[in-house]
Amino acid sequence: MDFSQIKSASMLTMTIEMICKINIIKLPKSATYSLQDILTVLLYAATSTSNSSESASNDLKLRNPDKKIPSSDTINNYIKSNNIEYILFSFRKITQDVVKMLNLKGTTQDVAIDFHDIPYYGDKNTSGVRGIKAKNGTSWGYSFCTIDIVGRTKLTLDVIAINGLTKNYAVLIESLLKRVRKMGIQVGTLFLDREFFHTVPISTAYQLNTKFVMAAKSNQKINAILAEHKEKFGYISTIFEYQFGKGGPTFSIVAVVNPKYDPTKKKGKGNNEYHLFATNLKIISISEFIKVVPEEYRRRWNIETGYRVKNTFKIRTCSKSPVVRTLYFILQCILFNVLNLLKSGLNITAYELKSATNSDIIQCIKYGYESLQAIPVKIFVKILAKYNKIRIEVLRSRLSKI
Questions:
Q1: What's the pLDDT score for residue 260?
Q2: Which among 17, 229, 249, 340 has most CB atoms closer than 10 A?
Q3: Based on the domain organization, do 121 and 164 belong to the same domain?
Q4: Phi, psi angles (nearest 5°) of residue 15
C-alpha cells in the first residue's frame, strides 16, 4: 500500500468502521435494514445540506429511486429500542481506539469540562428536558457534560447525558476525570468556566489532586478585596488567597486588569474592571503568574471552538426521544474525533471532511460499498504517520544543505 492511496481513501468507510466496530446501537430482530444502512442516512444528514434524518432519507430516495433507503421514522424507531447508557458506553469504546491510534496513552493532557446545551421548543415536561441557559428563545433543552482535550491535540474523551436530572458537579467531575485516567491519560490542568465557581467543584478538584484554572465570578467579598487593593496600589493586576467558607479549600484568585474596560459605561458583559480566575496552580512569581494564567485559560476556549466544529455535523430532529437526541449528539462527537484523528497527519477542515464523506455516500448508494477505496482506520493512520515522518526527514535534509 503506497502513499497515493491516502487521497483516495474513503472517509465514509473509515467512519462507519469505527462506529460499527462496537455496534453503537443494537437493531431489533425484526429490522429490515442493517446498521450500515442506518448510519449511511445519518451521516448524510450530518454532512449535507439535508441536515435532518427526514430530509436526508427523502433526498437519497429522490436521487436513487431504485434503491431501498430507510425512512426517518424507521431509523428513529430502531434507535428508540436502545438505551442511553449503551450508546455512551459504545462511544467510550470507540474513543479508546482513537486514543490508542493517536498514541495518547501515557501522556499528560490539559482537559476542559463543560456543558453542551441543545435547545428544545416543545413541552418542557418532555422526558430528558431540563432547564438550560436561555438561548435562541428557550430556556429548556437537552444537556450533555463533556470532557475534551485542549491544546494542540483536540478530542472529546467522554460524554455524560444529564437527562433532566439536577447537576451533581462532584459526581460529574469525578466520573469524567476517573474515566480519562482509566484510558491511560494523565490530567495536566483542568479548565472550567464560571458555572463551576463554587465550593463543590473546587473541593472535588482538590480531593482528586487535580490542578485547575477556572473563570471566577465577582461577589461582594471579592469586590471589597479589589476595592482595598485599588485604594492601596491603584488599578493594577493582583493575586490574593480566597476561601468560600470556613473549612473549605483555600485557592488563589487572579485579578487581571481588563484593557478594554470603559469606566464611562455601565458594567455589563465584557466591561468588568478585572478578568477573574480561580486556580490552585503553584505561584512562583506574581508577575509571571499574571501573564501565564489568562493565556492558559484561553486554551480552555478551544473547547468552545470544538463545539462550533461539532455543530457543523449537527443533525436536526423534532424527536422527543432522549435516546435519539443522545445518539445524534454522540455522532457529532464521533465525527469531531474522526476529524482530529485525520488532522494528526492531514491538513483537513470540517467542511472538507463533510464534502469527502458526502461524496462517498452518494457513490456507495449508487454503486455499493465495494466501489469505495476502503482502508482500515489503523492502517490509514500508520500510513499517515510514516508519510509525515518521511516528509519531516526530507525537510530537515534540505534545511541542513542551506
A1: 80
A2: 340
A3: yes
A4: -65, -45
Tens of pLDDT along 174-189? Answer: 999 999 999 999 999 9
Residue 198 sits in a domain whose CATH number is 3.90.350.10
Q: What are phi and psi of 215, to 5 degrees?
A: -70, 140
Say if 245 falls within a structural domain: yes
- Residue 165 — pLDDT band, cuts 50, 70, 90? low
C-beta contacts of 367-373 below 8 A and 24+ residues apart: 369/13, 369/36, 372/10, 372/12, 372/13, 373/5, 373/8, 373/9, 373/10, 373/13
- Asked if the structure places residue 356 within a domain, the reply is yes
Range of the domain at 45: 5-84+315-400
pLDDT digits (tens, 9 = 90+) for 325-339: 999 999 999 999 999
For residue 297, give the C-alpha cell: 485559560
